[in-house]
Write a structure and sequence with these properties.
Blueprint: H1 2-7, H2 10-32, H3 37-59, H4 65-83, H5 89-120
């Protein structure tokens, strides 16, 4: 998914991060209900640990600001999916607030990267210094 963010326009990146990733999160929550709680937690924990490790290893070589924002968005959504297994109603209210806040934050970050690219002519971390 982060590679798709880099290739598309800023508006589509915002859509991918704010709408599509959140919809996938809710589909995971719906999928979670199909299995017993212990099996579901172990399955999701294993998948998310692998996904977080994958993102952490890939982010060390990324030089594109837009890709960094995209990887951060995917990482936060993975960690949120792991925490969703607490099955606490207060936690689910917190998830709703987090999703709204994360959507606004990633929108601002993608728009900021777009402004940086317009000003400096590059999204490269190496080319854009002194931020």
């Amino acid at each position: 998914m982060p590679k798709a963010h880099v290739e598309v326009s800023t508006g589509i990146s915002v859509f991918l991060s704010c709408i599509l990733i959140k919809l996938s999160f809710f589909s995971l929550l719906k999928f979670k209900g199909l299995f017993p709680a212990e099996f579901s937690y172990n399955l999701f924990a294993g998948i998310i640990v692998v996904a977080v490790y994958d993102v952490a290893t890939r982010v060390s070589n990324v030089r594109d600001l837009k890709a960094l924002v995209a990887y951060g968005s995917v990482l936060h959504t993975n960690l949120l999916a792991l925490l969703a297994h607490l099955d606490n109603t207060m936690f689910f209210k917190g998830i709703a607030l987090y999703i709204v806040g994360h959507s606004y934050a990633t929108t601002v970050l993608f728009l900021s990267v777009n402004l940086i690219e317009a000003h400096y002519g590059s999204r490269s971390v190496l080319a854009v210094t002194g931020l």
